[in-house]
């Protein structure tokens, strides 16, 4: 199939799927129990004032009318106003997005690089003591219960030892006093180390096991035997011939992990009080802030769909046998 035709068909499919997600999210939130007014106003508010607020939010209109307005606003770049913050949803999301990208993209890339390197070493030394240690360690990391492990890391390294802050992304006193820029950067890094280390340990095992499994399969291929027959060194065979093809499933996993990192790992952000998209998403859903919750979910959906599309294209670049 011609690449242009493939890209065009894929783009149409993604647009239709995204529109379906948009529709489902709209009705799903409005059919959920509760309403934003009872959570955001004084319980002593008179029924007349409450009705006025509902009218201002547009929640007094029929669902179909609300839906048509929402779709029209969405495709004109208007994501609505957060019921809680009283600000445009786009502004609230953009204020939280850099924190999420900083932490989760960094942890995903570091875990992927370490997992790929250790995975190919483990597969190359299959059956050795090193392979056993790496495989068992990876299984332990892969099966860790995320909330429990995050709380243990916070308790041990934050509370008991006191090496790291117990939460947040900055020390307010440094920023209020307008400390030097370099000191502020170090302060952010200091706050980020503990959640970064937690996420790294949790994810590195899955990448290691995936790379090891893929590498073992590739090492059985005929072209590996041919490379050995040519007298190529083990290092060249492992890194240039085997590892590149073995990385195909890892690329898919990393691409999707980076996409899903946009949601910030809601539980992780909540435990470390990291001010990102995931923590904001929990707040929006629990407080029936429809526009903000929809905006967060739609951002996640758009990034995940785009990541799938990019991974499909990367496959053809990594493996010449794949054509579109």
UniProtKB/TrEMBL annotation:
Keywords, A to Z, come to:
Cell membrane, Membrane, Transmembrane, Transmembrane helix, Transport
Record-level GO BP terms: transmembrane transport
Q: Can you supply one Gene Ontology CC term for this chain's record?
A: plasma membrane
Q: Which organism encodes this protein?
A: Desulfocicer vacuolatum DSM 3385
Q: What is this protein called?
A: Peptide/nickel transport system permease protein
PANTHER family assigned to the protein according to its UniProt record, in alphabetical order: OLIGOPEPTIDE TRANSPORT SYSTEM PERMEASE PROTEIN (PTHR43376)
Topology relative to the membrane, per the entry?
A: Multi-pass membrane protein
Signal peptide segment:
none
* UniProt keyword Transmembrane, yes or no: yes
Q: Name one Pfam family in it.
A: BPD_transp_1
The UniProt entry lists the main location of this chain as membrane
Q: Where are the transmembrane segments?
A: 101-121, 133-157, 188-210, 246-272, 292-318
Where does the record say this protein resides? Answer: Cell membrane
Similarity field:
Belongs to the binding-protein-dependent transport system permease family.
The ABC transmembrane type-1 domain, residue ranges? 97-311
């Amino acid at each position: 199939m011609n690449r242009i035709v493939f890209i065009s068909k894929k783009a149409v499919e993604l647009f239709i799927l995204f529109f379906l997600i948009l529709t489902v999210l709209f009705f799903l939130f409005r059919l959920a129990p509760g309403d934003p007014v009872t959570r955001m106003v004084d319980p002593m508010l008179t029924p007349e004032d409450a009705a006025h607020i509902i009218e201002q939010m547009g929640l007094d209109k029929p669902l179909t009318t609300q839906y048509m307005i929402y779709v029209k606003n969405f495709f004109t770049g208007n994501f609505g106003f957060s019921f809680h913050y009283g600000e445009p949803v786009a502004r609230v999301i953009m204020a939280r997005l850099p924190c999420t990208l900083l932490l989760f993209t960094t942890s995903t890339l570091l875990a992927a690089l370490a997992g790929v390197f250790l995975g190919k070493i483990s597969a190359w030394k299959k059956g050795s003591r090193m392979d056993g240690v790496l495989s068992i360690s990876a299984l332990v990391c892969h099966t860790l219960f995320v909330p429990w492990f995050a709380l243990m890391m916070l308790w041990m390294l934050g509370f008991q030892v006191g090496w790291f802050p117990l939460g947040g992304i900055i020390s307010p006193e440094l920023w209020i006093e307008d400390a030097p820029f370099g000191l502020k950067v170090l302060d952010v890094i200091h706050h980020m180390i503990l959640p970064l280390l937690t996420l790294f340990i949790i994810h590195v095992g899955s990448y290691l096991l995936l790379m090891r499994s893929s590498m073992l399969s590739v090492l059985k291929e005929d072209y590996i035997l041919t490379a050995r027959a040519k007298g190529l060194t083990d290092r060249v065979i492992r890194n240039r011939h085997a590892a590149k093809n073995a990385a195909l499933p890892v690329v898919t996993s990393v691409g999707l992990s980076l996409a899903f990192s946009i949601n910030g790992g809601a539980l992780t952000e909540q435990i470390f009080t990291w001010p990102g998209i995931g923590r904001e998403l929990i707040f929006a859903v629990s407080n029936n802030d429809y526009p903000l919750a929809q905006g967060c979910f739609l951002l996640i959906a758009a990034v995940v769909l785009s990541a799938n599309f990019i991974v499909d294209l990367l496959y053809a670049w990594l493996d010449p046998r794949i054509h579109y």
